[in-house]
Structures
1.
Amino acid sequence: MHAAMTDACKAATVLVVDDNAANLKVVGSMLLKLGYDFQTASNGRDAVAAIERSINRRQRFGAILMDLNMPDLDGIEATRLILGAWGAQAPPIIALTASATPEDQARCTAAGMVAHLTKPLHVAALAQALQEWAVHSELSENGLATEDRDAAIEQPSPAHDAGSLMDLGRLEEFLEFDDRAQTMTREIVGLFVADAPRRISAIQAAIAANDAGALLIEAHALKGAASNIGATALQAVCDRLEAGSREAIPVDAAVRLTQLQSLWAQTVAALSRWT
């Protein structure tokens, strides 16, 4: 029985939903390492459309890895739309986010998500969640088993030293599923270096426009991308900006922006030395 369940799990195709190209690359590489096929969607609306196409073709996804904070249609609302439209036919939806607060976990559970994985994502945590949910999704379709979706897998949020600039050990973890030239790792770093200035400019614009909602989204996105490559100091400042903007623009936003810009310059220099 265990071997049959493993084979079913390995055959599953996972839909990864995230608006950050580097995040998609990291998760996709991990999925391939674990033996899963995958497709990607860059926002909540694309995810809903992908689920509709798959169900119409009777090619159900084994699971969905859903980022929470995305522009236009976020992961929570996309989850509600998917489950509201297709109910038991919908794949299990697993939250994938840089936020590990009890409030966010409660929101995920209330929306119908079955598990909660935090960024930076680790292969073991991903394997555990997919073994639990993607396997059962496939078996449920064949009428061989049913599972209660009310439980959530809580992954501990790794401790980060905000005083240190980089945790280069995070990049070394990619060696497990990269080639000797670290082609994939270098591509992820390149995507991060290309995308981060746009995120920082968007954060600056949100502060100038007194737009707390936009600040929350952009700070969360940059936090997740920074955590992917071990940019711990940058991640810590983004975390403070995100936490402070849930109600309004934080009073220290300008100071945090200055810190962010300074840390970005230092982070780029550190990554240049690494490459």
2.
Amino acid sequence: MEIPRGQIAGFLGPNGAGKTTCMRMLCGVLSPTGGRARIDGHDMADPQSPGRRLLGWLPEGAPARDELRVAEYLKYHAALWGGVPAGRIGQMMERCDIGDVQGRLVGQLSRGYRQRVGLAAAMLHDPPALILDEPGTGLDPMQQQTFQALLKDLSADRAILLSTHQLSEAAAVCDVLHVMVGGRIQAARRVDHAGDSGQIIVEARGIDLDACLKTVGSIQGVHVESVTPPWQQAKCETADPEDAMMAIAEAVATAGGVIRRLAMEEHGLDQWVHQALEGRQS
């Protein structure tokens, strides 16, 4: 898996799939038993890796020091990194829209504000890569919209990986989805292509529709739905609906049949993810 600058990649999968464990290894919090995690070519398993300064990390729940005020917490976090430019804290408070709560205790903030404070802290050293674990969990609809807009803005010149259980969040904010099952990436696809594979509905007469459709090479499966003489209806599974529709029309015409209906029924993003979780998608 590679995530370039300018892209938001989503991690989807059931509880226990290994998403958080994987993200902790990417951040260097855990050492992998195999494989490599690199940020800009730097191996994150090395405790002294320069890649650690290139990464911003927001764990699930946005943990912070509840007894500190927001401005104090950000100063504390900036001191941990060292070398944070003067004025950077103010810039991040403005960008994450938390200036109005800078004097409040972190422990008294709502979930939405805590998420924004956590993101501001992760961004203080201006990292080119961000890893966010369940950043949208517990946010109300308005908070989700605000947070998603902020992530879109930040992704312009950064690589971002976020895990989520919410398909709606993934569809709204991510460019690419990676579905994890049992510790492995089961499927990966761009969000704007996730509905490419689907079904074609065919209604025709004058031929054995089932036999005719099985001669079309771009079709993976055929299911005859109904037969109401003289019409037959079938659904065809295909990975390339547009090409398959042309091939079906040609095959039916060659066989001497007449088509009444030929339509594409696209799989939605939720169906693609469901199939990926069942191991039927790649």
